Amino acid sequence: MPDIRVTLNSEKVNRLKKYFDWAKAKSLIFIPRSDYWQKHLSLIDIKFEKNSVFLSGESGFYFPR
Asked: Which structural domain, as residue segments, surrounds residue 48?
């Protein structure tokens, strides 16, 4: 799957990264996961840069409109 780049201002990137780190830590503690879910979660890659976020993975992404 090709990478997806989402352009945001640096403040929004920082807020998103902070939320992502918090949610990731919370979900590791409280949410049980199936083997399927854990496999596909491990295939997702999210990179935060100054003015953008890059997404890639095997399962695809859904952006509601």
From this structure: 4-56
pLDDT at residue 27 greater than cutoff 90: no
Q: Per the domain annotation, does 64 fall within a domain?
A: no
How many structural domains does the chain have? 1
In a domain, 46, yes or no: yes
| 10 closest CA partner among 46, 51, 56 | 51
Per-residue confidence (pLDDT) for residue 28, from 0 to 100:
66
Contact 13, 49 (CB under 8 A): yes
Residue 44's nearest CA partner among 9, 15, 3 is: 3
pLDDT at 3: 82
Distances (CA, A) of 8 to 12, 13, 26, 55, 58: 6, 6, 25, 13, 24
